[in-house]
Amino acid sequence: MQKTPTDRALVASIHDVSPSTQRQTDRILEDLRGLGCAKTSLLVIPDHHRRGRISGDAEFLDWLKARLAEGHEAVLHGYFHLRGQKQGDGLAKKLVTQSYTAGEGEFFDLEREEAARLLRDGLAEFAAADITPTGFIAPAWLLGSEAEAAVREAGFDYTTRIATVVDFKKGTTHRSRSLVWSVRAHWRRVCSLAWNRSLFLATKSSPLLRIGIHPPDWDHRAIRRQILALTRAALADREAMTYQQWLLRQRSLR
Fold this sequence. Notes:
By secondary structure, this protein is an alpha/beta fold. Helices cover 41% and strands 16% of the residues. It is built from 8 helices and 9 strands.
């Protein structure tokens, strides 16, 4: 039986959305919309690097509500999006939290109580605009077991990691490796281009294709061009949707 586009989905997620990245996010959305990708999951940081809470920025909240009205989804994406170096961090933790993610893995090893507090504070920031996100995605997809327990207890429907989408409501885990680019150094950009080209080909038969975009990606022409080219190719036989929409569809099929 031949698959139809409704059987095959594309979720493009834009990470690190905040007042400081709003202009760049608009550029990304405009380019995606030009390809026919009109729905994305927007991963919003409530207080990006402690530069100011979204509840205090009426212009940003109005912008976010307008994007949701267009069909996009808002996802809680950490709180500060920062994890500083901690005394006693061993080599393994330093590799993950400093080399891999440059100090951004906020929920990597939080205790449950601290994670719960940040989740409550994050939800309160969204509530200022009458927005209730159903999903939580940890910065850099680094979600420790204690923090995950707090996410479940907070009532979120789902989370994602780099290789999975976890549906808390149904108790199911869907395997799907996200394409994502690293642009902090030239060698990272070269490796990202080669890796994502190969990963796209390897995942062509997967029901769900995930493309993770960060605002700095758009500052590098080769990265931007590849993301748009792969998005265009994916849309030939996939429907663009949000994580929330995709999970609702999966639940209806079971």
